[in-house]
Amino acid sequence: RNACKFENVNHVILATSDLESDAELEHHTYKPSVVFHKGDPDDVIQRYLDIVRKLKVDVVIRVTADMPFIDNEIGQILLQEHFKNGSDFTSGSKAAVGTNVEILTASALEEVKRYFPSAAYSEYMTWYFMNNEEHFKINKVKLPEKYVRNYRLTLDYQEDLDLFLEIEKHFTNEKKEYSIIELYKFLDDNPEFVALNSHLTLKYKTDQSLIDTLNKCTKIKA
């Protein structure tokens, strides 16, 4: 629903796997105009490229399924900076986990695929760019302070879902339209809800074995 609010886009695409377990998602696109695409269950970059090539898309705003609290305001800042700097990969710095988006050029995805015909860890797509700054023009954008928080708004654990349900309850009860500013106001005013999941860590930042594997498998060899 929040992706459908983004401005300056030609398509909103739900790109999932071709596994039967994901087929149900076709009934949850929220708008008839959303493109539903089924692709490779493991190679996410290939999944992206299949639909990007079909629709002749030049630039992708990447959103992952575990981050429903994305916001058009942050998206527009990053999109503008991406084009202004002629970047291959753009993202915000210091955004709350789960509120950032990534802007990718289709040509950069094609380049990654050229080096990694089978991108085994491409659910961690960010690493293929951040680990290869000599190959891609990376743009880390400093976001305005009003968009900067240390909240955890990604979905991995039950505690995350507990927080999400409290957020949804707030917007429903107050009959408010979602915005990142309204969300932050609610969380700033209710630290007891923030505490539901603030103790949890991100595996790709704390699991050294995973970090070592990603560094090894996503780095373009000279």
What does this structure look like?
The strands form two sheets. A four-stranded mixed sheet has the order 3-5-4-6. A two-stranded parallel ribbon has the order 1-2. The longest helix is centred in the C-terminal third of the chain and has 16 residues, at 158-173. The protein has 222 residues and is α/β, with parallel strands linked by helices. It has helices at residues 44-55, 72-85, 106-115, 125-130, 158-173, 180-189, 191-194, 203-206, 208-217, and strands at residues 13-17, 35-39, 59-62, 89-93, 102-105, 138-142.
Measured as a percent range, the helix fraction is 25-40%
> Number of DSSP helices?
9
Shape: globular
Poorly predicted residue ranges: none
Cα(first) to Cα(last) distance is 42 Å
Q: Structural class from helices and strands?
A: alpha/beta
Name the strands of the widest sheet in spatial order: 3-5-4-6
Please compute the radius of gyration using only Cα atoms.
Answer: 18 Å
Instruction: Kindly report the average pLDDT value.
Output: 94
Oligomer: single chain
Order of helices and strands: EEHEHEEHHEHHHHH
Which range does the strand content fall in? 5-15%
Largest sheet: number of strands, sense, barrel closure: 4 strands, mixed
Annotation, overall tally of beta strands = 6
Summarize it.
By secondary structure, the protein is of the alpha/beta class. It has nine helices and six strands, in the order E-E-H-E-H-E-E-H-H-E-H-H-H-H-H.
